[in-house]
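Researcher: We plan to redesign the surface later, but first we want a full-length starting point. Tokens attached.
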């Protein structure tokens, strides 16, 4: 996402919400999937992200406490 000069952040909507499936639980409840940034702070779609790259790690945990993760970057770039 690009922002105008001097703008320091932008609201970003993720194109696809994190999801997970499991052979026993089938679809993991999306509300239980936790996403954090590199500082360990919870993040989500439709919130403000600073100019730069924010690494996001999402973790889904099934009923047997097995977990899986996915990672992606959110890039907000200033225009010059």
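Model: Full-length starting sequence:
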């Amino acid at each position: 996402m690009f922002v105008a000069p001097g703008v320091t952040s932008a609201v970003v909507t993720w194109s696809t919400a994190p999801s997970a499936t499991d052979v026993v639980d089938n679809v993991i409840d999306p509300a239980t999937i936790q996403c954090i940034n590199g500082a360990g702070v919870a993040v989500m779609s439709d919130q403000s992200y600073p100019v730069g790259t924010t690494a996001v790690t999402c973790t889904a945990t099934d009923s047997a406490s097995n977990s899986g993760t996915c990672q992606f970057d959110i890039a907000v770039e200033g225009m010059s």
